[in-house]
Design brief:
This protein is α+β, with helices and mostly antiparallel strands. Helices cover about 50% and strands about 15% of the residues. It has 17 helices and 14 strands. The strands form 5 sheets. It has a 5-stranded antiparallel β-sheet. A 3-stranded antiparallel β-sheet has the order 3-2-9. Strands 1-14 form a two-stranded antiparallel sheet. The longest helix is centred in the C-terminal third of the chain and has 39 residues, at about 375-410. The radius of gyration is 34 Å and the shape is flat. Mean pLDDT is about 80; it is low at about 365-370.
Amino acid sequence: MDYIRTSEALLEEMRSHSGEWDWLRRHIMPHTQADADQNEHPGSAIRRLHSTVACDSLHILAGAHIMYITPTGQQWFSLKSGKEGNEKRLRYDNWFARATEITHKELAKSNFYTVIHQCFIDRCLTGTGCVFCSKLPDGTLNFKHIPTGTYALAEGRDDIVDTVVRLIKLTPHQAVEQFGAEKLPRRILDAWDDEKRRYTEKHQYLHLVIPRSGAAFGHDLVNPLKMKWASIYMAWDADKTVIQESGYNEFPFLVTRFLKFGESPYGYSPGMNVKEEIKASLKLERVMDVLGEVAAFPRLLTMADQVGEIDMRAGGRTVVKPQAAGMNMPREWATSGRYDIGKDRIQDKEEKIRQAFYVPMLQVISSVDRQMTATEVNAREGEKVLAFSPSMSLFISDCNTLINRIFSMLFRMGKYPTEDMPDELVVRDQGGTEDFEIKIPAVSYNGKISQAIERAQRNGGDYYIQNALAYTQATGDPSMIEIVDMRKYGRFLYESTGAPTDCLRKEKELEALDQQRAAAAQQQSQLEAMQGTAKAGRDIAAAQK
């Protein structure tokens, strides 16, 4: 495969979108321009062009992603069995719950929550966010934010991104440490030999991750050249030679789009809908600045012989001739601009910008001026979730790839318990070989959308049980309450609270408890039967006397 031509074609297609992204960066959040240009700092001239309202709105929207999708310190997703409605699934529920806790602990130990916030800013700013997932030598998960404009994408089946080519800059010191000196071009080695350039001069490299054609069944844990995704590093600004070829068993990138735009693999951001409003508000701000300066320092109309005689100081006195006084000279001139109208127009533009970034919706609770009941809070939360759900749902679809990567890495490192490990996680080759694949479990997301659904389920369940109990008490007929498996409903309520799963009884323990309860009931029944027989014997003996 011609990796160079493939990379060049993808990068060329990406650059057709980069003008739009550059405009959004300059006018909304300028400091991100440095990452996109792979520079250390943004230019000071660019920094003066941005809209503070759009920037604040962007941060509010990105913060809502953290709150609603990946809340820090909470289990925002759960691993589940892919099998439904059988005894094995119930027996494995505790293993998946424990694996979920381990996964979240590993994420908390890593830099995930710092990096995902940067990804969310890109997602809301340019419409597309990207994170690279790997591990450190000590086995800790490691994540890296990839700025929009430094990578190109291609989608595979079902519109899922499966190819990424990214441009990176490394010093000679970093390149030698990562690839080894023997694989680097002479130009880079010359810089490495120079102690003044070794740690400061940077060269551009290209990293291509692409599905390997004809990849065999199974995870190859030894030979990276047979893994399902090829990983190609090239010295891009030298001679475009391949300096490292390896592979990944899973796609190592999270690529998330705010909204999909046509057939493009790149996302569509809310800022694209209000470009004209941003430009108009910035222009109006400059006009209002001039108007404010004119109001503070008005223009003056004077007679020719008054030049240099006008005292503009506070409390200053200017002596004028009778002729000038008769003509009302000096006097203000051309200072009749309507500051209030300009201010109203700016506010109108800024309100449209806030609406595009969902700010009124996200701040609806903080805007009330009275104490709300829990029911009102839940209702308002539900409204926000429904309005925000399309973007969240797209993130969930994109995030499955990342969860697959994280689970497989932790599985291979032996982070999960081996006791009672579900057999569904390992799929063997049907051809009789020893090859296997890790089958990723089902993933349930526990963000605000899922919580809203679970809250509706809890409310519905509680309502039914209350009515069933009232009916049973009134009629003595238990048929309504008997259709509910109270143990399953109790487990659902417990898990929805986020309480630790270590406190839950295992299925084996529950079975033993049922057996003990049945044995105790049988003993009690036998005892009562024996007591009844003895009493009957005593009654017969008493009657015979």
